[in-house]
Design brief:
The protein is of the alpha+beta class. It has helices at about 10-25, 35-45, 50-65, 95, 105-110, 130-135, 170-175, 175-180, 185-195, 210-215; strands spanning about 70, 75-80, 85, 115-125, 145-155, 155-165, 195-205, 225-235, 235-245, 250. Strands 4-5-6-9-8-7 form a six-stranded antiparallel sheet. It holds the Pfam family GntR.
Length: about 260
Amino acid sequence: MTDITDGRSRQTRIADDLRAKIRTGVLQPGERLPGLPDLVTGYGIDMPGVSMNTVRLAIAKLRQEGLIISKQGKGNFVRTELPVRRHGIERYSRSVWGGKEPKALLEAEGGRQGRSVRQDTETAIVPAPAFVAKRLDGVSEGDPVHVRRRVTRLDGVINQAADSYFTLATGERSPAVVAGEGQGGHIARINAISPVLEVEEEITARMPTGPESSRLDIPEGTPVLDVIRTYHTEIGALDITKFVIRADMAVFNYRFPIPD
């Protein structure tokens, strides 16, 4: 390690050095870092007074940055970058879910990238959350609505949760929407009730809550993307879906003509 006398704390200097080694490939994705005693010994040569706690704080900083993953009883490892999913306007193409060989959006998206896709689904009737009542026609906060909760895995790794809300009346009109049955996925079933004219997505970023981290098995230091999607149909908004997506597994790619 280069001798640095710029006033940074020992833990910052250690974190900076390890970060540089990760960025330059000296430490490779998936590689196990030396144990804490070895790091104390190694860094103590240039920085007398380095303690076990100093190294722990440096590791914790890199863990928060998403560069390191700690595994109970195994040590600290350089994080492996996961394959990304690409979200964009084209994913909603009618030819995908309404063509001669209709596919669900996730099935088509995963197939284009050579990824295996699996979903675990459950349904329930719940009080409408505020964000749903704000967007779903004819619904007030607390009104009973259907929800289809899905957790998606790409190549066996959980990448997102998707909770779709729609009215009891919509469920009565189309039991297939509630059951998740039929070709073309959720958008095709909504379209069968009333043609989907527009898809609206609202995207924000944040750190996950404790329950979300547990549900999605999110590594520490990984932010998530909230995506609220509305299907606007000829008779109004029929479906509100909230996605919670691991930010390290998503790239949002949009290409579209400039509006007049």
